[in-house]
């Protein structure tokens, strides 16, 4: 008998966060930790019997070992078939696509996204459902509940599976199909965008740099940009996935994508720069000398999506996470389409996309995507930008100038205070929450509070409610500050302070956001008494 039933004792702390379960790698590698969580996932979906799953990850340390364990557990739990990316690799959006394309019952994706990788860094696992999207809160609650009372798990006692060769194998009665991680995804992108127009643009001398940050998008970007679109070899840098991301931090923001930013701000900058994160669902967009904030990028993509074949009939609606700026709302209003404001995390977009209420979604954290999959999609955003640039034949700066003149500019920045003592962060948030009701009418740094609340979301599709999704403070002149604790960190707590101020299209549109927001930043300090954190300033400003 190859199926073993192993006694298990619950681990504390198997509560999935904003995007799956994320822990220090060593914690994930404790004997039984991964196994308990995988068994809890199977329990939450009423078993794996007869089911088909997609499996892959961003290639970080422990990726292939975890895949071996998951395959053996899927077999022992009676799964029918598992589709795995060759070498254990699948970007998050590619996994989402495969689940949908092959009508799988779900997928297990191994990643801690933008967090560093390695034995002393981070690891993660999330489950996506049959629609290709991250498990909703009701499902992650079931996973947690099972993890707290688990008494055994099942695993097949078989040799390791060959992940290096594409093809089909039998593992204790289950079919394992190893596939090219890029092929299906590349085909989907070719369906959505005008590759001929983009190819012509490259042929005409258009120059681009794509920084894959040693993470999973390297092979995807090389195939799409260099092989299929004819960008010169070398357009993609850091294109080999490595288990510790070249000791880097695969977070595509101006701080961590420093190499790219320096090149794009230099004299010989290419026309267009982009980067993606560990698992390929985020994107950074930067023009010659101009960083495009993710909130603005969402708005520009929504306003111009009709220029790409897949969206030529227009878009149904736009959704953004609450902390994301109002820029996309202005576009939706002008297009007379619906706009939605959801809590942070892609799982909240799933129902809106499934119901056809929205076509494009985005978050201020460098995530943009559409109804082509049920995850945010870094390369999709890059290709849509390229398609727009190819049709409009303008530079990124010209497009942004035109956009801001038309809609006005929402100056935006996020300040992160990382690895704070959890108690201190909780205390600060609770203290602020308790004072919210009294803030209206008070002045801070010369700004008058109009209203303040704790954001709650009522899902219009399934009727579910989510409370405490961030503290919002609105000011009389239209500025807004949001305070929120991160749900993806693995060390202490991270406080995110989201800052926003509107400038009309006739005003000063090209100021430095930190300067344009100086008053709002000061108000945030005064309201939340940020000096209590004992920090000189934020660790990261995006
Ligand atoms: C962060 C971002 C959020 C994003 C999440 C997952 O969450 O703020 O917008 O959806 O990461 O992104 P938090 O809870 O730390 O603020 V990724 O690229 O991990 O899949
Ligand atoms: Co990610």
From TrEMBL:
Keywords: Isomerase, Magnesium, Metal-binding, Phosphoprotein. Residues 1-22 are annotated as: Disordered. Its EC number is 5.4.2.2. It catalyses: alpha-D-glucose 1-phosphate = alpha-D-glucose 6-phosphate. The keyword Isomerase applies. InterPro entries: A-D-PHexomutase_a/b/a-I (IPR005844), A-D-PHexomutase_a/b/a-I/II/III (IPR016055), A-D-PHexomutase_a/b/a-II (IPR005845), A-D-PHexomutase_a/b/a-III (IPR005846), A-D-PHexomutase_C_sf (IPR036900), A-D-PHexomutase_CS (IPR016066), Alpha-D-phosphohexomutase_SF (IPR005841), PGM (IPR045244). Its cofactor is Mg(2+). One of its GO terms (molecular function) is magnesium ion binding. SUPFAM superfamilies: Phosphoglucomutase, C-terminal domain, Phosphoglucomutase, first 3 domains. Residues 14-153, 189-286, 295-407 form the Alpha-D-phosphohexomutase alpha/beta/alpha domain. Belongs to the phosphohexose mutase family. It comes from the Bacteria. The keyword Magnesium applies. It comes from Cognatishimia maritima. PANTHER family: PHOSPHOGLUCOMUTASE, PHOSPHOHEXOMUTASE FAMILY MEMBER. Coiled coil: none annotated. GO terms for cellular component: cytosol. This is phosphoglucomutase (alpha-D-glucose-1,6-bisphosphate-dependent). One of its GO terms (biological process) is carbohydrate metabolic process.
């Amino acid at each position: 008998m190859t199926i073993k039933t192993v006694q298990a004792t619950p681990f504390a702390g198997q509560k999935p966060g904003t995007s799956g379960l994320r822990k220090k790698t060593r914690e994930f590698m404790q004997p039984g930790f991964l196994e308990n969580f995988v068994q809890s996932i199977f329990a939450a979906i009423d078993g794996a019997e007869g089911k088909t799953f997609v499996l892959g990850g961003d290639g970080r340390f422990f990726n292939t070992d975890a895949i071996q364990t998951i395959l053996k557990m899927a077999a022992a739990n009676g799964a029918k078939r598992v589709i795995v990316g060759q070498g254990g690799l699948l970007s998050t959006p590619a996994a989402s696509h495969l689940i949908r394309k092959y009508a799988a019952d779900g997928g297990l994706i191994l990643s801690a996204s933008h967090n560093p990788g390695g034995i002393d860094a981070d690891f993660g696992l999330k489950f996506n459902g049959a629609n290709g999207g991250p498990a909703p809160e009701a499902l992650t609650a079931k996973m947690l509940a099972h993890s707290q009372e688990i008494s055994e798990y099942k695993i097949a006692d078989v040799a390791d599976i060959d992940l290096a060769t594409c093809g089909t194998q039998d593992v204790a009665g289950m079919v394992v199909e190893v596939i090219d991680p890029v092929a299906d995804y590349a085909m989907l992108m070719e369906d959505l965008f005008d590759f001929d127009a983009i190819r012509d643009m490259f042929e005409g001398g258009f120059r681009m740099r794509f920084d894959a940050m040693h993470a999973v998008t390297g092979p995807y970007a090389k195939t799409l940009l260099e092989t299929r679109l004819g960008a010169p070899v070398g357009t993609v840098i850091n294109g080999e996935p490595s288990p510790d991301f070249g000791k880097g931090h695969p977070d595509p923001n101006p701080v961590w994508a420093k190499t790219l930013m320096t090149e794009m701000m230099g004299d010989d900058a290419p026309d267009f720069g982009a980067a993606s994160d560990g698992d390929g669902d985020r994107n950074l967009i930067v023009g010659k000398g101009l960083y495009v904030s993710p909130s603005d990028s969402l708005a520009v993509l929504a306003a111009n999506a009709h220029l790409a074949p897949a969206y030529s009939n227009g878009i149904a609606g736009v959704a953004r996470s609450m902390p994301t700026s109002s820029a996309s709302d202005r576009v939706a209003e002008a297009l007379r389409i619906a706009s939605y404001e959801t809590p942070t995390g892609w799982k909240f977009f799933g129902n809106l996309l499934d119901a056809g209420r929205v076509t494009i979604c985005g978050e201020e954290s460098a995530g943009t995507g559409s109804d082509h999959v049920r995850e945010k999609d870094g390369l999709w955003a890059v290709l849509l930008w390229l398609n727009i640039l190819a049709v409009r034949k303008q530079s990124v700066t010209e497009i942004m100038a035109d956009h801001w003149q038309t809609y006005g500019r929402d100056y935006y920045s996020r300040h992160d205070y990382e690895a704070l003592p959890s108690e201190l962060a909780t205390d600060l948030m609770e203290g602020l929450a308790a004072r919210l009701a009294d803030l209206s009418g008070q002045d801070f740094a010369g700004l008058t509070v109009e209203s303040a609340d704790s954001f709650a979301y009522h899902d219009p599709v399934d009727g579910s409610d989510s409370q405490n999704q961030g503290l919002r403070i609105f000011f009389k002149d239209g500025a807004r500050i949001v305070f929120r604790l991160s749900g993806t960190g693995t060390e202490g707590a991270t406080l995110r302070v989201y800052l926003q101020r509107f400038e009309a299209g006739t005003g000063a549109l090209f100021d430095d956001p930190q300067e344009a927001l100086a008053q709002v930043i000061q108000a945030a300090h005064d309201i939340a008494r940020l000096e209590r954190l004992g920090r000189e300033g934020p660790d990261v400003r995006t």
